[in-house]
Structure formats: C-alpha cells, structure tokens
Sequence to fold (318 residues):
Amino acid sequence: FLLIYDTMGTSEGARSAVRSAIRGGAKILVGPVFSAPSSAAAFEKMGESLISISLSNDPNAVASNAFVMGFFPSHRVQRIVSYAAARKLKRFAALLPDDRYGDFVGKAFKEAVTRVGGTVVRIERYSRGQQETLVRAVKRLGQYKARKNALERQKLLLGGMKDPKSALILKRLNVLEAFGAADFDSVLLIEQGRALTSLAPLIPYYGIDTRKVRILGIDDWSERSLIREPALHRAWFVAPPPIGLRLFKNKFEATYGMSAHPLGSLAYDATAVALFLGRSASLDLIKKSLTSSRGFLGSAGLFRFRVDGMVERKYSIF
Fold:
C-alpha cells in the first residue's frame, strides 16, 4: 500500500518524512521533487535497506540506493546538439540566464559541443525579468553594434555612387538592421512560455537571420502561443515522446477535472515503477529489477536506471 508523507518542500521536512517512512516499514520511497530536499532524503536514509526514487533532475541527489528520474537538462542539451551536428551545424551559440540553472546548462552545452566536434562561438548571459539586459545580451550575441556600423559605412559608400547597380544594392541594404551574417549557425535558448516569446523576437529584430541560424531548445515548445511565434518558425526542440504524455494528460483531466502538473507524469511513472518493484521480497531483487537494461515504458517514454543512480531517457526532436 501507499503512504503519503509531506516534505513541506524543505530539507528538514524531507529528512523528517524519510524517518517517518522508515518507521512505517517502507520498502521504496518515491520523491521528493526538488534538489535540496531530494539530496537530504537520499542521505537521511543512508544505511537503511530501502530504495528511493527522486523526481529531481539534480545529479547531486544520487547516493547509495538513491536514484533520480527527472528530465536532466544535460541529457536534453546533448540530444539537441547531437541532432544539430548530424545535420551539419557546427558553430554553436547560446543565450542563457545569469543564474545557477544557466551555469549548469552552459557547462553541459560546452561539453556537448566539444563531444560532437563543434565550436562554441559565443555564450551571452542576461538577468531574468530585466528586459534591458536581455536586449544587450542579444546585441552582443550577434555583434550588432559592429555589424550596424558596417552597414552604415556600406550605405554611405553606395550613396556616393550613381550607377543603377549601386542604387539597387543600397535599396536592399536599407531594409537591413546589420551588415553581414552572424558567425554561428545555431543558438540555444532555454526559456519557456512568455519568457520565450519575449526573447525570441529580439533575435531577428537585432539582425540575426533566423532563416539561416537555427534556434535550439531543450523544453517542450509545442504550446499554441509558441507555435504561432514567427521567430521560432524553424526552431528545433527536444521533449519526451508526445503520445504517452497526451494519454496521461487526457486520463488525468477526465479523472480529476483539472490539468496535470508538468511533473505529474514523473510522479505517475515513479509510482508505477515502485508498485512493480514492491512485489520483490529483498533489496537486492528490487535493485536488480530497477536497474535492468530493458528499462521501463512510462507516460514520458522509455527510460531506464543506471547502477550509478542516474536515469537514461529517449527524447524526441520536434
């Protein structure tokens, strides 16, 4: 049977919940969700003969018999970079928030690009919620100032010429924001929702031609407001396979009359795994079944646990 213990979203709450679960005779723990409580839970149960499956995507929450099954940003970055490189894109750039998550993705991005033999041309950072820093970051990304100045010089030069060919070239230059192409062929963005619809249009507005530069994403950008954004027209993004998620969401809404939480599929899959494993009598059998190379088919697609506690997933490209 299933027992629920509230971690209160804190490290101390997680430790208390683990102790209560152990006293209640738990064989398998599912949760917590966030990084710090997950790490606290993993180390609180050290020495105890039970498995835990955290919904976190923080590798630091891995410990002895403590597994994590979140959607790891580093895995998604590797997937989209590998896909782009296989399609002859080799010069990569990124626009990342100036926070811990941006640091983490930036490190994974550099490693992924190196792995495929590509080049990180430029990574620019911005402060979330501050439009002026966002604009400055986009301008730096595309070297807007230098290319703008080059455009003005070219227009001045052509303006002094009277031949029809120069006049035609000048007419074409008058509709441009900057001269010359960006020196990268893809750019990684990690925003979602409204933050993404604020960021994406700035890229072509400041002279980065999205017909030639491919925008890459590591989150599900399939919502209607993003599909309708012209700047994202040619973007590629990585996400779990949609069929299982669609079935889960439809079943959830039919049952509860409300939309599932974005992490609801993780909780569902983790609980299903725990129920399957709970039939085993010993810790060794549970761990052997959990780390089987065959893995599991969940609502968020295929996944399997490695013996080091990390999860591997199959992601789709859209």
About this structure: The first helix runs from residue 11 to 23. The longest strand covers residues 119-126. The CA atoms of residues 22 and 48 lie 8 Å apart. The chain has a mean pLDDT of 89.
